[in-house]
Amino acid sequence: MDKCTESSLIFFTDFEKFDGMQATLDRLRLELEDSQSLVKQLSQVQLDKRSTCAQWDPALPVVYVITPTFARPVQKAELTRLSQTFMLVQNLHWIIVEDSKQKTALVSNLLKNSNLNYTHLINMTPPQWKLKQKEQRWRKPRGVTQRNAGLTWLRESKKPAVDRGVVYFADDDNTYTVQILNEMRYTRKASVWPVGLVGGLMVEKPNIDPDTGRVSSWNSAWRPERKFPIDMAGFAINLRILLEKPSVKFSYQVERGYLETDILSQVTTPEELEPLADNCTKVLVWHTRSQNPNLEAENRLARKSLPPSNAGIEV
Question: What family does the database annotate (predicted)?
């Protein structure tokens, strides 16, 4: 065999080896991609197992939670706390309505990553009803436009003869238990329960007549003469009632502090209210509010035209 022929054989053999190695690499790459896909699927399965909300039961009434929200430093923290609770409730649909011209990335991403059943809406508060800087929170009714937007979506999407459930108006700065969210789903007309840390009291609640099991009076310090001296966090309304009465909505044209009384008066009477939370003997909701953070150092950065501390990171 001459040297030329020998070199050709060596080259051919090396080429075969290279071709074999390339085929092996391609096979390993496909196996790696399959493994990564499997890991991703398993991770999602584990997430679904942890999240009760992913286990949808067509026979179970749905809890529709309408939450107004607006941009502020504590918004993501507030919504994260709510979402972590809602994830533990089966058949819950979160209708979150931003007071904004457009859907924000913060809320969109939070909802997308929450594994919740949700509807994301926007509806801006009319300028004349927006709180001015340093204006007290109680000076103007808040969340009216957003709650009504949630009701409109329900009326356009659900049918009274088909869809079963309850509607709850849950502000984003309160604290809710899984227990009350599960109890309210069986509301026939309108249900009520105590709310902690509201109205200047440790608890504001309906008083129940032990003989009739009905609301007989109210434990309320602020404007106790109201027909329904109750906080927004203290009641829920049957979905069918709201679908069959399209005129029922929140209004700016009510006396300060009467939003709850106004909406409940359109659907029920005090005598018809259904007490929950062990006959209104337990506090399962709290009217909490995050303290405004001290951002003086952040303001100094802005005054010096320096980058903010949260540049490139969502807080």
Answer: Belongs to the glycosyltransferase 43 family.
